[in-house]
Specification:
The chain has twelve helices and ten strands. By secondary structure, it is of the alpha+beta class. It folds into two domains: 13-262, no CATH class; 291-433, Alpha-Beta Complex (Sulfite Oxidase, Chain A, domain 2). The strands form two sheets. Strands 2-1-10-5-6 form a five-stranded mixed sheet. Strands 3, 4, 7, 8 and 9 form a five-stranded antiparallel sheet that branches. Strand 3 and strand 4 form a beta hairpin. The longest helix has 32 residues, at 169-200. Residues 302-434 form the Oxidoreductase molybdopterin-binding domain. One of its GO terms (molecular function) is oxidoreductase activity.
Length: 436
Amino acid sequence: MPERRADEGRAGAWWRDGPPGPFRPGFWRSPLRGPWLTSVLGLALLAGLVIVAVTGLLSYAAYNPRLPGNDMTPGKGLLGFYLFDWPTRPVWLYRVTQGAHVVVGLTLVPVLLAKLWSVIPKLFVWPPARSIAEGIERASLVLLVGGAGFQFATGILNIQLFYVFPFSFYPAHLYGAWIFLAALAVHVAVRLPRAIRALRSRDLRRELRTGLDGTRPEPRDPDGLVAADPAPPTMSRRGLLAFVGGGSAMMFGLSAGQTLDGPLRRTALLAPHGRVYGTGPNDFQVNKTAASLGVGAADTGAQWRLVLAGAGLRLSREDLLRMPLHTYALPIACVEGWSTEQVWTGVRLADLARLAGAAPGSVMVTVRSLQRVGYFGQASLSAGQVADPRSLLALRVNGADLSLDHGFPARIIVPNAPGVHNTKWVRELDFRPERP
């Protein structure tokens, strides 16, 4: 009987005090944790996440998912309420929005990790919930932390061209974004008043002037962020914020060059490719080579013809070169965040629409490629994109014929379109009326 009562006593203490390790308050002893530090990191993270969220949703709109073949997430339902016709002007808009999405996302990684470190005791609170309201809040916290981890992990692996997950990136990233944003909205609504009070409790400039000798724990707080038995400080809050800020500055410096182009491209060590160009007219980024997508020289030789579907026309490359050619300096930007501006020469899509018996401004076009494997073997362009005089079926770049990896014998270049909609190795253009 005494042994049984002892076992029951130990079980009761286990339930009352929590399992050994991180579930017990004494496990967390950093003297830096507290509401003020968490609020500072949270404010910086929130500002960056707004940029990432808005630019991410704009990126999805840029795909014109209402057009045939463009919707990578057909089950989105109400999540597509905000979609609009993606414009062709200004030509740099997608370059800026997607570049900001990727670069700001990478820059936030140190801030996100620091924020998670600052609140990690809350993830191990015992018991998990003392009331229904607390249970809802903690469930939103699980979705918030899990959603942030999922979005950052899938996004970073995708831009590194090392996507290893057994599901499609596009719907997973979109649905994950909405789940994360819903959890973030609940978290902000619940925590914002406390965060504002915490930010007002200490002076930022004074904290940034306080070294290690003057570092003291924050006053005890009801949320349990402040350690019950803090250890002596080994770093000041100023040092921690400098460490996080320095990490973010490093991430920015190692990624921004892929969007800014020019000399800074050499600094983009986090870019998956294309940091250093050669001197030839075709020496710029290639995401997928012709060989990797099943396109060979036999497909693009003298026998190649461009088919204008519905018009009974088959045009050789020589036929296209005899048509009026136009040259424009246009950027090409990819979902991975890289972009570059090159000088393209080709036939206007509007002229090809007229040749097919269609009126530019009223018809969209579905572009089909020679590629045999992979995504985006076809893409649809809106009537506005077809009608823009700078939208080209490009035959040359920087004064030279396209290389095979850049889409020879002909590729699409449309101002402000995502890179995957600038279809390479075009074999067919299908103009048809655009339905609202």
